[in-house]
Structures are given as structure tokens and as C-alpha cells.
């Protein structure tokens, strides 16, 4: 995969670390893992920089979407096993707590998270893919958890995985460590769509363009409603939807979009 940046993002990124970069333009943020020589394995340095980048994103008031992607042959091929084997206690302390903090921070942000997946999506990479609100994958993408293969449990993503594919499928993915391809991931609900070759780039461009065109408050209110739906009772959810609809309908964009809809039908 080539190094992709958002249309309109300047050559100077918002943040340039040794393991990832962050570019922001027109309401879209692009976080790109750049450790292609290690297949973007999650190292202590990457965990630190990931948290730092998420903190920078958390103060962006006009942000609508965040795109996660990797350079080279993989989105992310799991954790840094060399660091974990060399000094397990230190590596775990340097990776998991900052990543947990970053995941909680991302979950709280009123932005749509899009994962652009290709190559290997393994271990922590699969957890991050599950975190995304929307995932699109190249046809050659391969998924695997593989934590049980190294005699440990999963981190960063079981909460999201169970909500995406259910308990039985999650047990299969987490314990059998059997790899699966992008088509299977789409059937199981782990990715939204699968694309061949250059179609992935055009689809990503079309989706980000669509998100950019939406009013910011619509993106934020819709994501909030969707994320609280699992925890709310039906009565609570209906009441929340009523309140949010009315809040949006009171804004000038509502009348303007309706007028545009009728105008388009007459032409």
C-alpha cells in the first residue's frame, strides 16, 4: 500500500511521529501507521504515539471522521512480540494502559471512525478494526486474532468484537485463532464492504466526501444515538431519538435541506 493522505491535507502533517502520522483537513483526520518494516506491529513507541495523536484529535471541535490506515503490506500485524518476549512486564505496561486510554478516548469522541484495511489485520490490529464504526477492506485482507497461539488472552477489542459478531463467533475467533479473509469478515459483520484494487481508494474517497458534506451536528447526534442504543430500553431510546430529531429540526439546515429536496424533484 502507498502512503495515502487526505485530499487537501498539506505535506506537513498535524503530527509526525516515528511510528505514525496524523493529518487533518476539511473535517477529516487521517492516522497512518508508518512502521512498514515491522508490518506496523504495535510497539511501546506506537502505543505512546497513538495515545498522543488521540489526545490531539480530542480537542478538534470541527472533526467529523477519523480514518485509520497502515502503510506497507499490512494494516497492523499484531503486537511487537520481540518487545513482549524481551521484557514482558515492561512491554505490557508500556503498551496496554496507553492503548486502553486511547481506545476509551476514541470511543468518547463524536466522530465516525473508518478503518481502511489491507494485508494483515492481526491481534491488536483486529481489535482496532473492531473499534471502527465503518470498515472497508481490500479483497486480499487476512484477519486473525492468534492470542491463544502465544498462550495469552485478547486485549483492546473483545468488548467491540462481541457487539459486532456475537458471543459464539467471538469465541471461535478468539480461541481457535483460525484466519479468515475479507469476504468472510464481511459475512460476519466485521467489515462493511470489500473492494478490489483501486476500488478501495475510490470508495474511501466517496465515503469521506459524503461525511464531509453532512452537517457536523447530524454526524455527532447520529453516532451518539447508535452507540447508546444497546444500553437503553426501547422507551428510553425512542425518547432520545425524539429529542435529537427535534433538536436537529430546529436548526436552519433542516429547512434548507428540505427546500433543496423539493427543488431537486422539480428539476
Automatic annotation (TrEMBL):
InterPro entries: ClpP/crotonase-like_dom_sf, Enoyl-CoA_hydra/iso. The keyword Isomerase applies. Gene3D superfamilies: 2-enoyl-CoA Hydratase, Chain A, domain 1 (3.90.226.10). It comes from the Bacteria. One of its GO terms (molecular function) is isomerase activity. It holds the Pfam family ECH_1. The keyword Cytoplasm does not apply. Keywords: Isomerase. PANTHER family: EG:BACN32G11.4 PROTEIN, ENOYL-COA HYDRATASE. This is 2-(1,2-epoxy-1,2-dihydrophenyl)acetyl-CoA isomerase. It comes from Stutzerimonas balearica DSM 6083.
